[in-house]
Predict the structure.
Amino acid sequence: MNQLTLQQRQNNAASRDHWEQAASHRQRVMQLIDSAHARPNARLCVLGAGNANDLDLARLAERFAEVHLVDLDDEALAAAVERQPVADQAALRRHGDCDLSGVWPQLEQLTPDRPASDDEVDALVAAASGFAGPTLPGPFDVVVSACVLSQLINAVVVSLGETHPRFVDLLRAVRNRHLGLMIDLLVPGGTGIFITDVVSTDTAPQLQTVNPADLSKCVAGLIRDGNFFHGLNPKVLRAHFEQDEAIAPRVDDLEFIDPWLWHFGPRAYAVVAVKFRRV
Ligand SMILES: C[S@@+](CC[C@H](N)C(=O)[O-])C[C@H]1O[C@@H](n2cnc3c(N)ncnc32)[C@H](O)[C@@H]1O
């Protein structure tokens, strides 16, 4: 099996029982989905659904005619659906073994110990940028990206290496395509909810004890100090939605959601979200 997939599966297996711990994170994610405008019988798609510890599947299946759960890890999706019984089981559609990067097999071939050549990186950038997305029965009324982009970018970190001179080129290609893919998967007028973890207690232990009222200020300070995951500076993400020539003209009604904490095993992550409407 692809080593990157194996790592994701191991992470999911180790965090399968985090349901209780994820309660406040799930509440924030569900509030955002609840607030999405959608017609009756609307269809929802969640990218990176994994263990679905951030989703109340029963509530989603009541509101949406179809709930499409997309992830690399079909085992995690199967266990999630089994753990959360839903009256209308047919409403839940699993799309396991789906890569959302477009370059997963190629990334696995790389290691920072053997620096990739310019030609190899050019090919990867082209493949990531031109990725049509997995085969899904879109378009959907609501598309949620559920903390998967940090994982796609982390795969670039472990495969190409953060000191590679073309690291940022590939990171940007993966990030830009992920945001573009969310838009592609939406019906015109549909709602996108992009959710991402931006920094964790590994480098910002103060997140563990910060007063909730001070969290936004605390995260803003971390960002100012350069303490955030590669490619996930909320200010850069905001600029992307507002100004990028491939993204900005395709979205409106942008809402930038203040950070909240996601408690995950011994760690906590600061998470932000962007809600938008496809034009
Ligand atoms: C941080 S977890 C979030 C899971 C879920 N949203 C939750 O809160 O329980 C990220 C998810 O992204 C999935 N993932 C990582 N890389 C992926 C890829 N290339 N394509 C599709 N899914 C991927 C992992 O399998 C994992 O389920």
Q: What stands out?
A: The pocket of S-adenosylmethionine is lined by residues 8, 12, 48-54, 71-73, 76, 98-101, 104, 146-148, 151-152 (CB under 6 Å). The first strand starts at residue 43 and ends at 47. The chain has a mean pLDDT of 97. The chain has ten helices and seven strands.
